[in-house]
Every structure is written in C-alpha cells, then in structure tokens.
Write the structure tokens for this entry.
Amino acid sequence: MKAEFPIIVPIHLGKSTVFAVRERGGAMLIDAGIPGRADKIIGALRKNGIPPEDIKLVVITHVHYDHVGSLAAYVKAFPCAVAVHEKEASLLKEGTSVLPAGTSAVGRMMMGLLNAIAKMAPWTIQFMAVDADVMINRETFLHAYGISGRVLPTPGHTAGSLSVILENGATFVGDLAVNFYPWGGPIFPPVADDVPQLMKSWQALLAQPVKTIYPAHGRPFPVARLRRAYEKRTKV
Ligand SMILES: [Zn+2]
Ligand SMILES: [Zn+2]
C-alpha cells in the first residue's frame, strides 16, 4: 500500500503537543514542546518512520516556553531552519517568554498564579535561546522545504502567533484555539494577549480552505466547531 501524504504525527509531550508533518518532498516540525523533551521528539519521529535528518524546518507557532522549550536541544542534535514571527524572534534569542493575560476568570486565576511563580522562579518561563533563521511577517509558502502549505500570521494569543495551513486543509494553530476540556468545550483559549485581534485571526482562518484544526493543547477538531464558536462570540 502506498503511503498517503501528508502524514501528520502528533507528539504529545505532557503539557503541549508537537506535530511532525511528512510529505513526499520533505518533512517539518511545528513547535518543540516543553524543555527536556528533545529525545522524546527524536524518538517519536523515528518510531513513525520519519528520520530526523529529513526535518528541514521547525515552525514556531509562538514563543511560549511550552512551545520552544526543547528547540535548542533539538536543532543542536539535528540542525534545520527555524521559522518564527519577526515580532517574537528577540524573545527566542533571549530564551524568555512573556506570560499572556487571562481571558476568563479561570484564565486570570491561572495566570495570576503563574506570574507569581515566575517572579520567584524566572526559570519556569525560560528556555535555551535559539537564533531563528526565517523571519515571518506575512503569509509564507513552504514549498522550498518540500511542504505543500503555508504559514499565516494569526495574532491574538500573542502578537507573533503563526498558523500552518496544509493544502489538504489540516491547520496547526498553536494556542489560537484549545481543545483540552474533558467535556468537549470551549475552544476559546483561556489566555491571550489581545482578544479582538484573536477574533480577527479566527475570522481570517475561517476564510481559508481549512478543514481540521490541530491545537497545541488538546485534540484536533473540525473547522465547523471554530465557525460555531466564532459566530457565538460575535453574535450581537
Ligand atoms: Zn501560548
Ligand atoms: Zn501553549
């Protein structure tokens, strides 16, 4: 049987999920998880028939420590291009992240707690610094890396948040939406820097040929659910 491309491999790293995408012409990673998990990423790639040497690009959806924690160790083991939004490249270079604001009572409580912890123990939001190779500030096609897809800036969770849209409609959104609640919803992220901007990014994604949303926290879900949540929140 011939393999169907793209092959999407979710690599669950406890707090967040890294995705590997393999196409006929190349392979990429989306995000690099919490610190200390590079070996787990490499092991998962091999187990799924993707030699880490084939990964030509890592796209960072945004510079929060749970998305870039193992990036330095990974690219040291298997050098490849690192793409990040130009607005967050300096955070990546400094090895630090800024905690976003809560969008709900629970989110605000969670962030209040994390901010207090980060004040006492700054290393909880720090990670090993990385110099990015590709600065994104607009829609960017990935064909040069053998990937039939593109990166689209989708700010809101952070100013430099990116989504990756594959030609088959699979879309990786980082923390622009979540799906980790056991009872199934909501998908609105509990934390975000700019809620009106986030809604604009949802709208922008809904105008694209998107089929399945892959959040970094929780299970993939059909785009219809994003549309319903968008309509509910924007209903006057
Ligand atoms: Zn985040
Ligand atoms: Zn996250």
In short: The longest helix spans residues 105-120. The chain has a mean pLDDT of 95. The two ends are 51 Å apart (CA to CA). The first strand starts at residue 7 and ends at 13.
